[in-house]
Amino acid sequence: MQFSNSACESMAVCEKGTSPVAFALSGQEWESFFTPGDRLTLLERFPTAVILPEKISGPDLVERINASGCRVLVGGWSLPPLPTDRAVFPGLEYVGYLAGGIRRKIPRSLLEQGLLVSNWGNSIARIVAECGLLLLLMCYREASHWQIRMHQKGAFKSRCEKGNLSLFQRRIGIHGFGAVAQALTDLLRPFHVEIAAYSPWPDDAVFAAKGVRRFASLEQLFEWSDAVVEAEACSPQTIRSVKELHLRLLGDGVFVNIARAELVEEDALIRVAREGRLKLGLDVYHQEPLPADYPLCGLPNVALLPHLGGPTWDRRVDAGALALKNISRFLEGRPVEFPISLEQYDRMT
Question: What are the structural domains of the chain?
Fold first, then answer.
């Protein structure tokens, strides 16, 4: 039997009997997370896989999982929120989530009750880090300033322009030191920069392995840095942790946010940005899409991207490949990669 998602027309669907795996994905998610070769691999490994309909409701999803006896559920952004009580689908043991933050889809109570959950882990870390590098370069080279002036006013540089600067040999601070921050340190090495970071969670050995200086406070990090990249996880402990005093410690430096807007006090960010000294590179916002009157739009010292950090369309397949690996590992009785602990869950957005 075939199902309607055009990206996977050749995959079989088992509606009766048992199947180890169910997929709750939109057609676009099938197309972007799995290559044609991956889809053939799925068909070969799991010929009775249950392909759930697009836009399936939570109750219908539970009913289909229970009817097919699935132990594994693979979902993406289109996955409906799961119920809070694991008893409603007692046979489900593992959820492989193709995207990042799971809190809007998978209640904490399910993890407390023993449900195994993983996400895309560090499979897209280098892609988000790449966006951080792009924004750093955009800020130092005043790319937004020149894009606005050249496109709208036909401007060109004069010899007295002093704003065009280099990233080489800078002091780069990173708030947070998870997978994205660690990937960013690798991308920054060719620029011969000094790198420091602040985050209370990783062990000292993690910083040492990357050759990164560890600061004991955000104040120390911002005071030392020429530029700071925001890459910390968003949690009750870190929300609005970057305040006006931190931004002012950067002076006429650079602040880039590729994590979550909620980590920064928005009013303070706007005030400092409007003064024009600090250069900003933002990929995340308190309201998305941006309202037409967003106060940072049009400022020459602010580079804006529309939450492009990751995964890019062409690299979503990295997360898909990880999901395939984890399905096999789980069914073979081996540990999956990047399982979500309760501590990690609480730090997610």
Answer: 6-123+313-347 (3.40.50.720), 125-304 (3.40.50.720)
